[in-house]
Design goal:
Three copies of one chain form a homotrimer.
Chain A: E1 5-10, H1 18-29, E2 34-39, H2 47-57, E3 66-70, E4 81-86, E5 89-94, H3 100-105, E6 109-113, H4 129-142, E7 166-169, E8 172-180, E9 186-191, H5 192-195, E10 203-207, E11 210-212, E12 215-216, E13 228-231, E14 236-240, H6 246-250, E15 257-262
Parallel strand pairs in A: 1-2, 1-3, 3-5, 12-13
Antiparallel strand pairs in A: 4-5, 4-6, 7-8, 8-9, 8-15, 9-14, 10-11, 10-15, 13-14
Helix pairs in contact in A: 1-4
Chain lengths: 263, 263, 263
């Protein structure tokens, strides 16, 4: 039998002691925990990016997994720490909207404010709640402490406006770039299921300085010198370049606008 | 008793959800698996670099380890996924030559084309076979599914021309740079066992803008301002600089030529 | 029951095979070991930085943990490998002063020179003792080999001068920057417990081009455009910028001087 599974997703990077300290705290409380890194390389303070990365990863893990999400520009302020159950997965995070995509996608979710300070590390710092609050709460949960022990249900938790494309005129929609991945693929917020039907028609996607009207179903079959749109593995339309960096070619970054025009 | 050991070697980086998603898929299928990262920081699409890194790492692991290697510029195209047994280690990878050094070094190897789509994640994307094909195949193997269940033996798998130094004239050999490591050590394809006998003679190694004729047996004993040749821990001659970056000093990168002249 | 816990802290980076090879060697000798990365992204050869990172992390782990620390500019030279017991934690490292902060902080410590070459990997390289000496020694220890088997106690191990602030004139102290973290927080060597009492008075901390006289107790409550001093989670005064990079704003890096003047 394996112990409880705990994933970590933070903006702490890998050069400092931050991630290692969290792991030590977890294993000190729950020696049987299995700790898996989702990523520690979320851009500093990038709450939306962390939410997207979590949304792509959590369902790949088995039910019963605890996910610790710490991207926390408000650490030490009045922002609340929360403990969430959603579709038999568990989450601890600051209540800053980082779980918005989770709330949107899970069939069911329940949010608690974590108030039981007896589960915090003492003395608790004002600047490193990853080590002093989120890691120990996850670890105590993993040892079998019940959800209700950590605090009461709340309903006024933070949900960020999750931006979906808006129709700006007949045949024209304005969306945004959710993320640029390591390979330079430009991940938009146009959901593939809804939008790839336009691949058969004439369409033009404007992304930065470039207009893209070619679509593809994999990278390798495409020419190396021109951008194309593809239904990516994340569930959204992406702009890509075969073995090249599409984001650099188009001069765009996360948060930039993307327009689709269908004729 | 520990569960089956699965290593990961990819060019996915650590900032995205890619590596985390693969780990989730593996643990969902085989909860007792132990997952160890070899590296996710192979340069994007760098098949030869990944092959070198694998060649340096796999024999350090115990027999029975499954190694998942995903550097896959041809994802979604007709390139075949393969499952390999070599000297009691196991490998899944795209059939793009990334395992060439393994084939050269193992006493014995057998290659199968993976065709049993019942072991793939559904629906399967065209762009993320790390999550949808390689991770689940490795995990099903780890639960005890026999090699023959995944597909038949093949013999026409891809082997890249593994470049060895060539003699260009009397006393002169032309080689190449396999890799530059984090410390700036320039790893050549001159095998130490064959070449370090020249350390006692007059030799000159030309690497980029520099000619190196000094050799050393460790870093710390060498002056800080001049390049030297050393029989490195990877089994090849390296050009190094004590606490400095030899590749930067010489202005070279992986793939560049290196010449040895013996007089 | 979980197996023995082994942490890794090196300057090997994550792009090469180095960390993966160490893990393979450990698991080959001690298959039940649990391996946890503290960091592999210590700056190359940065012994003091590694010592600081270790000092921040080791106490977070449970007693009985073995910590493998390899930042080793003197690899292959006469520098000794050591095995240390301190407050029921265990350490292997080169004897180059990287454990100085540990010696200062632990209630009790014992240092042995590792001489038992029967526990080394053969053949042993002159340049990669992480794989060939430190990893196998840690793993053999983890299988139950007694401390005394590895070598005798020594007392002339290396301690680096651990720089504490010095008083340069009435009301003025000169310190140094121990580290800049991922977020740009400037971690000084002014211990918070001793120095935060000045927060109520008029003080001026000079760091690079900036003079800081404001203090805060968390990041989020502070204005985004001005530097402030905070008692950080590492136990030292830090100079920070709310959601900004204080080190870049002040133009400083690890090792630079910091002055406190109290009036």
């Amino acid at each position: 039998m394996k112990g409880p599974l705990i994933t970590l997703l933070t903006d702490f990077g890998l050069a400092d002691h931050f991630a290692g300290a969290m792991k030590g705290v977890i294993l000190g409380i729950c020696p049987t925990a299995q700790i898996i890194d989702i990523s520690h390389e979320v851009a500093p303070y990038a709450v939306t990016e962390a939410g997207f990365t979590l949304a792509q990863a959590w369902r790949c893990f088995p039910e019963g997994t605890m996910h610790v999400v710490v991207v926390d520009p408000g650490v030490g302020s009045a922002r609340r720490p929360i403990l969430v159950e959603a579709d038999k997965h568990y989450f601890v995070a600051p209540d800053n909207g980082v779980l918005t995509m989770l709330y949107d996608e899970a069939a069911k979710h329940e949010v608690r404010e974590i108030t039981a300070s007896r589960y915090f590390r003492q003395p608790m710092s004002r600047t490193f709640h990853g080590r002093d609050l989120f890691a120990p709460v996850a670890a105590h949960w993993a040892t079998g402490v019940g959800m209700t022990e950590f605090g009461d249900l709340i309903h006024d938790y933070v949900r960020l406006p999750f931006s979906r494309p808006v129709r700006t005129e007949e045949g024209c929609w304005l969306g945004t770039i959710l993320k640029v991945d390591r390979f330079g693929n430009v991940i938009t917020n146009f959901v593939s299921e809804e939008w790839q039907r336009f691949f058969g028609q004439r369409f033009a996607m404007t992304v930065g300085e470039r207009v893209v009207s070619r679509s593809g179903s994999n990278y390798a079959g495409m020419p190396r010198d021109s951008l194309f749109v593809i239904a990516g593995s994340a569930g959204y339309l992406e702009v890509s370049l075969n073995q090249g960096n599409a984001a650099r070619a188009a001069g765009v970054k996360a948060g930039d606008p993307v327009e689709i025009r269908v004729v």
